[in-house]
Specification:
One of its GO terms (molecular function) is metal ion binding. The protein contains four helices and no strands. The protein has 151 residues and is mainly α. The chain starts with 22 loop residues before the first helix and ends in a 21-residue tail after the last helix. 1% of the residues are buried.
């Protein structure tokens, strides 16, 4: 039984619909843009946390509290969180599309990935925006930031 293959340079005939959104193209583009933004956000985060000021020895509850009390760092951290989780979820979706054998398996895995990404984004965003840098009656009051005593 002989099979004839198309010539490598033959025009590609799409069997998919011609109208609608090309989600694979937008996913591919998102991965490139978010990757560049993540490099900037992550290296900025590492530089500020590890190089500026006293370096690693300054990392404690007070340092993190001070950062999370500043709206600039809240937005920075949430942007990093959202971009990283969506970037990773999209990468996992691509792996599932490539390696899952049946449509049912693909659907289950992609639903699990989506659920995990959504739950982690919601919880992470809540932590960043509802973090209380000056907990009342804390057992570790000596670790509170300096500005807590002024309140």
């Amino acid at each position: 039984m002989a099979t004839t293959l198309e010539a490598p340079r033959s025009p590609y005939a799409r069997s998919a619909r011609k109208n609608g959104v090309n989600w694979e193209k937008w996913g591919w583009l998102y991965m490139r843009v978010s990757g560049v933004l993540l490099v900037v956000l992550i290296f900025g985060h590492l530089f500020v946390n590890l190089m500026v000021g006293e370096g690693v020895s300054a990392l404690n509850f007070a340092f993190v509290s001070g950062k999370l009390a500043d709206p600039f760092w809240q937005i920075w951290d949430v942007a990093m969180l959202w971009l990283a989780l969506i970037h990773g979820g999209n990468g996992m979706r691509t792996l599932v599309n490539d390696y899952a054998a049946t449509p049912l398996t693909r659907g289950i895995f992609k639903t699990a990935i989506l659920a995990a990404v959504v739950v982690l984004i919601v919880l992470g965003t809540l932590v960043v925006f509802t973090f209380d840098p000056c907990p009342a009656g804390a057992a570790f009051a000596d670790l509170n930031p300096k500005f807590c005593s002024a309140l």
